[in-house]
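**Archive record**
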Amino acid sequence: MRYVPQQLTHPVGAAMSLGVFLTLICPGSIGRAQLPTFEQLQPQPPPASLAQSQAEYTLGGGDRIRLDILEVPQYSGEYQIPPGGSLTLPLIGSVSLEGLTEQQAAQVISARYQSVIKRPLVTVTLLSPRPFNVSVSGEVNRPGSYTLSFTGGVGDNPGIQYPSVTQAIQQAGGVTLSADLRNVQVRRRQQFGSGAVTKVNLWEFVQTGNPRQNLLLRDGDTVFVPILTNLNLAEARQIATSSLASDPEEPLTIAVVGQVNRPGTYTIVGGNTGTDGRTLGLPTISRAIQRAGGIKPIADIRQISVRRVTKTGAEYTISVNLWQLLQMGDFKQDTVLQEGDTIIVPTASDVNPAEATELATASFSPDTIQVSVVGEVTRPGLVEVPPNTPLNQALLAAGGFDHKRARKSSVELIRLNPDGTVSKQTIPIDFAQGINEQSNPILRDNDIVVVNRSGVARIADTLETPLSTFGGVFNVFRLFEFLGGFF
């Protein structure tokens, strides 16, 4: 009988047998020939990026498919896979297609039809994919369950792409500025067990565009974005300008309290238009203070704080130094705001005159303040002056003293305090003095400056009424000008 060699069906075993044969006929040849080791003969997993890009679609309940059996049109047709993934077909009954690719499903159906059809040739084509549901929770703006869409074609081009982690986060309104992008978690349901959790570093994806970190999702996945333990202002600004951030056109409700001209709650909208409420860019602290009328002269811009509440209900405070922004251009101090933030502008313990002048030109200072200058000045009434204007400058803005009637030695400053009380202070006037609290204080919005009459003017006004009956025989002021040396 002639010997017919059998076909090797196990390449690993064949390679090992070949190695033994070479060892017997040619000792030491293995070391020279460098035959592959057992580990090298094992199938190697593809890179993660390749595995994700070539991920095949798996069928499930809700998919609509086309089943074609060659030369058996009566058993061919379109089907929608019911919930549970089992499809009922003519002659063979229920066939489970859950979790199978199109090719695998065709093989399973073909194997079932072999008992009733000779050499069945089955083709399964996806016509329309089922709704794709994922849950997104944690530090996103709109946590909840979302239905995502597949990308790619169907029919003639059946290859489709699963939605990614970033697409799910964008659907949920983007991440908050408290999100820890380095430790995003994706929980995937398993057939047995509680499920597998995969950690994704989306910060690396934002910085380098590494697609391996943008994990492709599956139906039923849960994405959780944890909260940062320590907020980095520079990173928060980068997140705000990334594709993972919320839409800048989304209105934000924030509160501004403390040493601002109009404390209260404001709705701020980003974008690039100049309509009311918009900030002409990112909604930052300085622009929110602008909406609140700007800072007051006694505001401490070195100790501004932002109180923020996370999605889990935790509250923490961010310290901001806007003076550092003015002096060094440190943009990270002008941090980006998010929904529900509260900005607190404290009162300064001491006002530096040189700093006050510089603050008056800052973008978060008001354009003007209103001060009333009444009494014996050339143009009494309401005057608009720049913020942090000293008393002397306001007097000059009102035209200066009325030289015939004004008491030039001092004026009275009336101020409405934040607690509702009214204070009155007599200020000596010396136009040679710079800014100081004693003789040339910085004025605040709605201050009232009263320039009283001189002694001569008071006496003249007292005598003017009874003497007026003489029809101007006596000119009182000329009289007192003549007698001025006695007063």
